[in-house]
Amino acid sequence: MANRIRKCPECGSKNVVTDPKHAELYCAECGTVIAENLVDLGPEWRAYDEEQASKRIRTGPPMSYRIHDKGLSTPTPKLAMRARSLQWTSMDSSEKTLAYALVEIDRMACALKLPNYIKEATSVLYRKAAKHKLIKGRSIEELVSAMLYITCRQCGVPRTLKEVAEVSRMPLKKIRRTYLSLLKKLDIKLALADPARYIPRFCSELGLSDVIRERAIEIIKEGEETIAAKGWAPAGTAAAAIYLAMTLSGEVGYQEEKEIARVAGTTPVTLRNRYKELEKGIKLNINADALFTDSYPCQEEGKCLV
Predict the structure, then answer these.
(1) Which of 158, 272, 277, 304 has its CA at 20 to 30 Å from residue 129's CA atom?
(2) Superfamily of segment(s) 93-185
(3) pLDDT tens digits for range 61-72
């Protein structure tokens, strides 16, 4: 009832105060007691700091798939070390494997700076794969890496397979093989990754202006048909769009080309090829051959212009 009353019935003031000591609800302007004998729905104990509250509280966190027992076990903060060791040894091998995999998911997701809902969705995907008996015969690290990349693709979070492999203990080749296998066996359909999602992060790492970022996103939209027909990787396409936007603004150079390729996790050769195809697709009047020379600044008739 107290939560529903937001206005004093006498003076119309919205300055309504709850007094837990006297179990009353009164108006701070005119002093009218609006309600009395309120029921306190809070705990029966008091705590003066966080340490006291953590000792006296009798409820745990909500259920989470990121914990091997989903967080539904009885919390035992003062459990002795020997008792904890016995608790671990009493778990069967499948529970131990699940616990290790969930810890690995949390480690890699933190290294990639991913939000908690990505960790939760990846944990659900791992449990689903374990239920279908797809984890036997494969390393936990490569399974977790592939599932983390699948979840990022499903949620539209811009992370490349190379970035996942950098924080993993498994090589890129094995992660890609496991990724393709999981897509087939779990019947997962992934939409094409949008290169425009990678542009804000790349521009932020490169320290580029908002004008370059917005222009690069416009270039991606203009060349959408060309990108879909070619089937390019999203990171390389985003890097080419950024390079093209910098070219239009006159802020590009040979060093910038290598820096963009490094941030996007691609090579300068791939960047040049994507740039030329993208420039042709959106029909811009730019001489791509003149912009990419073996040395920078450009040379004319064998003589350096500088």
Answers:
(1) 158
(2) Cyclin-like (1.10.472.10)
(3) 677 778 776 766
Distances (CA, A) of 277 to 220, 265, 270, 289: 12, 19, 11, 12
Judge: domain 1-48, CATH 2.20.25.10.
yes
Say yes or no: do domains 1-48 and 195-304 share a fold: no
Which is nearest to 293 in space by CA: 252, 236, 259? 252
pLDDT tens for 7-55 read: 888 888 888 888 877 888 888 888 888 888 887 777 777 788 888 887 7
Residue whose C-alpha is closest to residue 174's, from 142, 219, 197, 211 = 142
Please state the domain extents for the chain: 1-48, 93-185, 195-304
Q: What is the pLDDT of residue 144?
A: 93
**Which residues, in sequence order, are CB contacts of 247 under 8 Å at separation 6+?**
286, 291
Superfamily of domain 195-304: Cyclin-like (1.10.472.10)
- Backbone phi, psi, residue 4, to 5°: -85, -25
Distance CA 198, CA 265 (A): 12
pTM of the model as a whole? 0.65
DSSP state, residue 63 = P
